Amino acid sequence: MVELIYRLGQLPSPAYRAGLAGLVFLILYLHRDRPETRTQIQVEFDSLGATLRCDREGLQALINLAFDARYELKWSQNRIQNPVEVRETEDGRLYGWNLLVVNGAPLRERDSSGIWTNLWSEWLLNTIRAIPKSREPFKLRANQEPISIEKLWTALQRPNSKVGLSSSALIGAEAKNAEGVSLDDTNAQQFLLNFWPYVSQPYVPCRFDTDGKREDWGYAVAIPDVQDLEAFVATFPDLLDRRPQNPPQYNGYRPLGALVELPEEAALDSLRLIRERMKLTDIASTLEYDVLGFEVCHAVRSDPKRGADLMAIAYIQPDWERDDRYAKIRNTFRCPWFRRHLLQNLLKNRHWTARWGALLSTASQQWFEDRFFPHDCKLIFNREKNAVELSELAQILKSLCDRYLIARLVSKNQEITWDNKHKLARQEFLAVRSRTEKTAFREYFFGTLCSQVTPVVSAVSDESLTKQENSKNRENEKLRQTIALAEALEKDPETVRGLTMLALASNFKIAEKIDSSSDSKSQASQAS
């Protein structure tokens, strides 16, 4: 019989604390699925830690469950080496090959369609288990063979003995550092690293090509930094249930909810799911979070013959205000690169109006063909939607651009139609976009946009005041707004330029059909 005692506070990193939660999660599932194992492997746990007791049979059952896998027969029209089967069809010859899939039974029972579990298996086998040797346990289980536990059983008899770190158990781990110093772990702690993936959710971040089309960019996994083991294990199944399934109109093979713009969204979306549960249970304090935060690891496997490259690691803590703003941005805006910029500003504690000038000036013009770009520009200036905090400067510039377009069309004796407004707005948008120098933009701003209309509008009259008092108030308000606009142009012309482009783009005509450059996530949102 082996006995291992773990305390959350003594474990060195989020992966180990998540590993302890994963260990408890798997044992509880094992007891439900195979009641006979309750005498072979037992776990006692509270909010601060857990004690594991097991014999050989119990350990064998646990390891078989953790590494359980299967082969799925896939077909390809391209000739492959050593196909498992060849089939002749009317369309030509098909070559069969076996795809290794991790079963993840405790996760799959909370995933009605299996799409989240399939993504989890794909992530696991293409990141920490990308090296062929590290996949051997899964291949044994796929062939319905037991995994040898002799070495593990012997190691757990000496829980405090030192052992080298391995990248097949921990993302980015190395046996030695740059100076050649060995990085050791203990047998008991390394044992936990077999289980942290079971409570960690992978997402698929992206980058954008020159045409503004989405390209999947590896995987980002959110590893929970568990602070209350008992509460986390109790609520984790509910979090799995809260993951959205794909709508019927969406035919993608990955979960729509896992397609994100930034790696950090793996943590932000996990926190969003926790917040949803907390709101339903009337928990109103951040002290009640089951986690201290989430460690996010972004990994990309660019070469199928090598393991994955670790691109970045971030740590995201709960923040009620930021998390609410994230949920609003995620659920409101549809243009992927537009949404990404808002999220970058949010994560870096910048106002949403920051750095639009630089983005819109350097992005390819193909980006602006996304049908959801004008849609989102309209939304961001919509007070009723309240998607973002609408500053006075943004309101002034939106009003100025709208009034200018109408006045300019009138001066040219053109009808005020969506087509005409779109054509003129796009012309002025590109004019602002090309004027990256402060002086050139200011000359354009006052010489063109302010040539047809006044920069600011007068305040609404107050019926309780006299006509003379209202007139004075209007003049004072116009003066105040004019000074505020002049100061913004002097101190932060890039923000003014960016907001001016957004205000002009809000007058673009939205295409009736979804453009081919729209990402799959936006298409599915529109379909639903």
Protein described:
The protein contains 19 helices and 14 strands. With 528 residues, it is α+β, with helices and mostly antiparallel strands. The strands form 5 sheets. Strands 9-12-13-14 form a 4-stranded antiparallel sheet, with helices on both faces. A 3-stranded antiparallel sheet has the order 1-3-2, covered by helices on one side. Helix 9 crosses helix 10, helix 10 packs antiparallel against helix 11 and helix 15 runs antiparallel to helix 18. The longest helix has 25 residues.
Low-confidence stretches: 514-520, 522-528
Whole-number mean pLDDT:
90
Biggest sheet, open or closed, and with what strands and sense? Answer: 4 strands, antiparallel
Give the strand order of the largest sheet, numbering strands 1, 2, ... along the chain. Answer: 9-12-13-14
Counting DSSP E segments of at least 2 residues, the number of strands comes to 14
- Tell me the helix content: 40-55%
What does the radius of gyration come to?
29 Å
Index terms:
single chain; 528 residues; alpha+beta; four-stranded antiparallel beta sheet; three-stranded antiparallel beta sheet; 14 strands; 45% helix; elongated; disordered C terminus
Compose a concise summary of this entry.
It contains 19 helices and 14 strands. By secondary structure, the protein is of the alpha+beta class.
Strands, helices and their partners?
Blueprint: E1 2-7, H1 14-33, E2 41-45, E3 49-54, H2 56-66, E4 69-76, E5 85-89, E6 92-102, H3 105-108, H4 115-126, H5 136-142, H6 150-156, E7 162-164, E8 184-186, H7 187-192, E9 201-203, E10 206-208, E11 214-216, E12 219-226, H8 229-242, H9 265-280, E13 291-300, E14 309-316, H10 320-332, H11 336-347, H12 356-362, H13 372-380, H14 392-411, H15 418-434, H16 438-452, H17 467-491, H18 493-505, H19 520-527
Antiparallel strand pairs: 1-3, 2-3, 4-6, 5-6, 7-8, 9-12, 10-11, 12-13, 13-14
Helix pairs in contact: 9-10, 10-11, 12-18, 14-16, 14-18, 15-18, 17-18
